[in-house]
Prior knowledge:
Layout: E1 2-4, E2 7-8, E3 10-11, E4 27-29, E5 40-44, H1 48-60, E6 64-68, H2 71-80, E7 85-88, H3 97-106, E8 113-117, H4 122-131, E9 133-138, E10 141-142, H5 143-154
Parallel strand pairs: 5-6, 5-7, 7-8, 8-9
Antiparallel strand pairs: 1-2, 1-4, 3-10
Amino acid sequence: ALKCCCRPLLLGPWSLLRCFFAGACLVRRMSGAGALAGLRILVVDDDPDILAALSIALQAEGAVVDAASDGNEAMHRLGAWPPDAAVVDLMLPGQSGFAVVERCRAAARPVPAVIITATRGRRHAEYASPLGAAAYLEKPVPMARVVGAVLAAVGR
């Protein structure tokens, strides 16, 4: 499990979101090595703390991470830097997370997308599946669950 200062690292507005590489606070993998080693992952979230936490957690698993803070930037990066998987928030400035997931699916080499959102309700969850979302996770979500969803999405 991923830990920070010996506590589970969670993702959500009331959870520990920041990890600092300086000082005593380090994100570290507690068992095994890099389950995501060699994978390129696009992470998209407009909250800088969540974007940083997701990036750190995925990098701790060995992934190469590219980050985007809005839907327009994510669309550009999908074309310029084709990832192996994407982790996408739904509510984004510019184009929505749904548009980003649609673009992932429509790519020449489709990109599996994991949706992470604070949006509650069945309507969004039901809409995500036909778009081709590999997983739909509601915040707050443990980082280990995010990593597991990415692993399942890429077939590892």
